[in-house]
# Entry
Amino acid sequence: MAEKPKLHYTRGRGKMESIRWLLAAAGVEFEEEFIEKEDLEKLRNDGSLLFQQVPMVEIDGMKMVQTRAILCYIAGKYNLYGKDLKERAWIDMYVEGTTDLMGMIMALPFQAADVKEKNIALITERATTRYFPVYEKALKDHGQDYLVGNKLSWADIHLLEAILMTEELKSDILSAFPLLQAFKTKMSNMPTIKKFLQPGSPRKPPPDENYVATVMKIFKL
Amino acid sequence: MSEKPRLTYINGRGRMESIRWLLAAAGVEFEEIFLQTREQLLKLGQDGSLMFHQLPLVEIDGMKLVQCRAILSYIAGKYNLYGKDLKERALIDMYVEGISDLMQLILMFPFSPPEAKEKNIATIAEKATERYFPVFEKVLKQHGQDFLVGNRFSWADVQLMEAILAVEEKVPSVLSGFPQLQAFKTKMSNMPTIKKFLQPGSPRKPPPDENYVATVMKIFKLD
# Structure
């Protein structure tokens, strides 16, 4: 029996959340080890972290680090990465877009109040003028349920995560995007994703002051 | 005859240089368009060529590819520089992502204020010699092969070579504690495609100067 993947990170979303999403959507159960300060030093000292950083995921005999590398491996392994090089290129492009958008949101809790306010406005603008129009158009152009190749892929899961994260910031952010609204509904009803969206799943809550303080302490920021 | 890939960027390294390196190392000839005004960038955005209104843009195999990593992954996959299976790809991805974090410091360096430059060079030196280079020194030592992954030339080797040269431009003695990396650098430099890329007149771009910084600020409207 294959071992479950084991995720090493702090108890919160951060850079690990996209990995939790992808594994969950793929129907893969996993274990989590939540890092406190001493644990990070220990992981570093025993050579478990290639570049002294987390996320780290133990999977298939490897200790994988670097968020993107981990996500690419999971996508490839569970057939969520398209059927050929070109589909992979489209998935990569779409994912890079949602990564940039979510990256802006993830940085917010660590910013001073005035910077934060300015960035929230920027994020809202970028979401509605740079990012969401791309995905709305993609769905409109081919009329299919999924972004690439008429099949569920990493790009769809990442987009759903980005939509929900942006909605937490501004609940009506999808008001001008009817196809994304339909996409959100369809994706949310997929059994594995529905399960992940229910209380008690490995999904982590939005970051609060507690989480920020923990991260600052553990990573010595 | 298939068309050559066409690269659109400004006339400088920036986020396009890794792509130039990879195509060159793969022996692929390409064309380049250099933007000089912000209007040119906005026009590209308006005519739908830029998915997220950003550069780099690479037109290849009928696609308008954007986002560095997507472009590099496609080129690596197409020219068999991405390992033989998922696990080798995972190793290449991990190495490339790590090197990319180091290169990010170098990418941002020209845009840091004068008073921060000395500290930033120290950070680059520290990260290179304590976090990143030791990893690759160890990898090469442990398997004793010429290339990082699978005993075969890959994207990871090209990216590491680019990083070594870029760091050496800032910290000339950076490889002094890394004999394996010194040997690696020599071997890579002598590979025909890379040797050609390192010669004057190749598409390789010079280190960023004030002119380059001014052009970037103007075209991308960075504050």
Notes: Chain B has nine helices and four strands. Chain B touches chain A at residues 51-53, 61, 63, 65-67, 69-70, 73-74, 77-78, 86-87, 89-90, 93-94, 96-98, 101, 131-132, 135 (CB under 8 Å). The first helix of chain B runs from residue 17 to 25.
